[in-house]
């Protein structure tokens, strides 16, 4: 078993290298090698400074310099992620049948995409490594996601309010095609990243728009039904949260 | 950085290559062998950037295997290119050490005369 300090160093190194666009396989190989070294050194009573020197940050830099920038990985991951964000925000209007694009919307969305990459890099290097073992780790990620999603929602609402001239309004057929393209992209990204998350999030996000499209307006605007739904959602969230918390404690 | 550690830094590439040339080995064992030879590195981890460089330049080849202690371990062996590079390093070292020794001895001689 590694000491907390060594484990912390490995986490920081991994995130530092990830943020610098290094190859995943190389990062894994190196961290495994260093873990093995630290484990043996600690078994002989050495402290981590003995291995990484007085300045862990300097050591990380020296490693980073040797690894080079994995252009192929970033070249595929950055556009994939940008497309993923676009797909998230296209598929809800597509389900509702109201997909449209305005010039201002495009400009602000590109700016937000770039901003999200910068925030991601900052969190990965400066914030998340320090919180890896803390319950705040997921808290910070959740807050970052919420703020980002919130910003996009603000843009959409603001666009609707200012009546920004859309230069493209999708026909019903185009809406269905956009929806199909989004679903296909979610599946492709899930296979690429080997994670269900890009399918699960849109699945849950789609309930609202689906309901909006297929449930009659009279039912949709009934205050009684809205209240019951809100209470139910809050209850499910609390129960889910408590169950998750208990499960973690048992572990 | 002290003069010694700066000198060692420049020699680390060739020295690690020479160690790996003696037979398949891995990170921690390399450190132990360096210490046996009284080769003081700045910090133990400083060999890894060098090992990465050697691997990148195709001077060593690596294989990951399970270690007796649990995690996977990376083993290094020298390549054909590595052997050529090692010979070049030996030649350079001979020239360099002869040059420096002769220079220092000459200096000592003059000092003795004065």
Describe this structure in words.
The complex is a heterodimer of chains A (251) and B (114). Chain A has 251 residues and is mainly α. Chain A contains 12 helices and 2 strands, in the order H-H-H-H-H-E-H-H-E-H-H-H-H-H. A two-stranded antiparallel ribbon of chain A has the order 1-2. In chain A, helix 1 (4-19) packs across helix 4, helix 1 runs antiparallel to helix 6 and helix 8 (172-193) packs antiparallel against helix 9 (197-205). Chain B has 114 residues and is an alpha+beta fold. Chain B has 4 helices and 3 strands; from the N terminus they run H-E-H-H-E-E-H. In chain B, strands 1-3-2 form a 3-stranded antiparallel beta sheet. In chain B, a hairpin with a 5-residue loop joins strand 2 (60-66) and strand 3 (72-78). In chain B, helix 1 packs across helix 3 (47-56) and helix 1 packs antiparallel against helix 4. Chain B starts with a helix and ends with a helix. At the A-B interface, helix 2, helix 3 and helix 4 of A face helix 2, helix 3 and strand 3 of B. Chain A: It comes from Virgibacillus profundi. Chain A: Keywords: Coiled coil, Membrane, Transmembrane, Transmembrane helix. Chain A: Residues 20-47 form a coiled coil.
């Amino acid at each position: 078993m590694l000491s907390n300090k060594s484990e912390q160093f490995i986490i920081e190194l991994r995130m530092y290298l990830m943020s610098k666009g290094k190859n995943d396989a190389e990062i894994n190989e190196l961290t495994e090698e260093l873990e093995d070294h630290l484990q043996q050194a600690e078994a002989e009573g050495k402290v981590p400074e003995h291995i990484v020197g007085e300045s862990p940050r300097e050591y990380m830099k020296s490693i980073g310099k040797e690894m080079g920038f994995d252009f192929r990985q970033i070249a595929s991951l950055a556009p994939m992620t940008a497309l993923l964000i676009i797909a998230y925000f296209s598929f809800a209007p597509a389900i509702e049948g109201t997909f449209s694009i305005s010039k201002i919307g495009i400009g602000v969305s590109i700016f937000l995409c770039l901003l999200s990459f910068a925030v991601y890099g900052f969190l990965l290097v400066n914030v998340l490594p320090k919180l890896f073992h803390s319950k705040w780790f997921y808290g910070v990620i959740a807050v970052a996601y919420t703020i980002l999603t919130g910003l996009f929602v603000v843009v959409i609402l603001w666009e609707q309010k200012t009546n920004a001239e859309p230069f493209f309004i999708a026909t019903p057929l185009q809406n269905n095609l956009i929806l199909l393209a989004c679903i296909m992209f979610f599946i492709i990204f899930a296979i690429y990243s080997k994670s269900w998350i890009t399918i699960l999030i849109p699945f849950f996000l789609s309930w609202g728009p689906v309901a909006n499209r297929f449930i009659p307006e009279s039912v949709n605007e009934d205050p009684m039904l809205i209240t019951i739904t809100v209470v139910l959602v809050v209850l499910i969230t609390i129960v889910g949260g408590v169950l998750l918390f208990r499960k973690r404690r048992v572990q | 950085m002290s003069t010694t550690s700066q000198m060692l830094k420049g020699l680390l590439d060739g020295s690690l290559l020479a160690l790996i040339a003696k037979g398949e080995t891995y990170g921690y064992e390399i450190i132990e062998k360096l210490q046996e030879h009284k080769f003081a590195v700045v910090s133990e981890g400083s060999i890894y950037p060098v090992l990465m460089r050697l691997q990148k330049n195709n001077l060593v080849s690596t294989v990951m295997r399970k270690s007796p202690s649990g995690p996977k371990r990376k083993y290094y062996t020298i390549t054909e290119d590595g052997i050529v590079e090692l010979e070049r390093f030996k030649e350079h070292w001979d020239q360099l050490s002869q040059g420096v020794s002769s220079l220092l001895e000459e200096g000592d001689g003059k000092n003795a005369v004065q």
